[in-house]
Amino acid sequence: MKRLTLMLYLLTLLPFNASALTPEERGLEIAKTADARDTGWQDQISSLEMVLRNSSGQETVRKNRMRALEVSGDGDKSLIIFDSPADIKGTAFLSHTHAVTADDQWLFLPALKRVKRVSSANKSGPFMGSEFAYEDISSQELDKYRYNYLRDEAVNGNDAFIIERFPQYENSGYTRQVVWIDKQMYQPVKIEFYDRKNSLLKTLTYHGYQQYLEKFWRPQRMEMQNHQTGKSTSLVWHDYKFQSGLTERDFDQNSLKRAR
Predict the structure, then answer these.
(1) How far apart are CA 143 and CA 68, in angstroms?
(2) Which burial class, exposed, middle or buried, applies to 99 when counting CB atoms under 10 A from its CB (0-12, 13-18, 19+)?
(3) N or C: which terminus of the chain has fewer CB atoms within 10 Å of its end residue's CB?
């Protein structure tokens, strides 16, 4: 009787979630925690270098500025302004991310002096010739995916959760993504993207995370490798600034034409 009592007591000490959650519930719980830990930054400004490499390793460098606005109750808004090279200088990309409906995205093309709406069926296409798709650069809202916990695994010496997420958007270019989430930061350190045939298409890795405002983690570099074409794209971030007072007006369609 004493042995049975001891066993029951020890069972009460086990983490409830370890035994009670299904893989789907645990995957969602991890995603919710990651989302909650990255809430409250309000707005963000940064400089960005985009390095495009073809299959032979030849490089093209583009310099951009990025602004983002945190939106309560919906997806975030972002604006990317291209400063170089000269042939795309002044091009601007605006994205209004939504949690459960198609994102709204627009391009301002200075040569044509007009704003072009990006088709909701074209989000899987390459963004400005890079290996990032339009859907990759929009904010990754929680409700965009279904989730499934796979396992725990160490990445670069740090413990990580590995979860699958399945896009809810019918025009997504992916069947699923496998995401490694660092257990300390609750930020992704690696993502594998599987195409509509469920073949590995791309791998994205994150490097040089730093913490801002004693809470928010941001990478200094992101590397996207396309396994099917041999091409790759690097994003190198500089000069992160937060809570600069940006408003909705800084992210409307007129802001594309005002962008300098």
Answers:
(1) 19
(2) middle
(3) N
CA 165 to chain centre: 12
pLDDT of residue 222: 97
Task: Give the Cα separation of 134 and 169 in Å (integer).
Answer: 13
125 pLDDT tier (thresholds 50, 70, 90): confident
Distance between alpha carbon 60 and the CA centroid of its chain, in Å? 23
- 260 pLDDT higher than 70: no
**173 vs 135: CA distance, rounded Å:** 8
3-class DSSP assignment, residue 177: strand
CB atoms within 10 A of CB 238: 11
Q: Residue 223 is encoded by which pair of tokens? A: 């590397």
pLDDT digits (tens, 9 = 90+) for 242-256: 999 999 999 998 888
The angle formed by the CA atoms of residues 99, 33 and 144, to the nearest 5 degrees, is 20
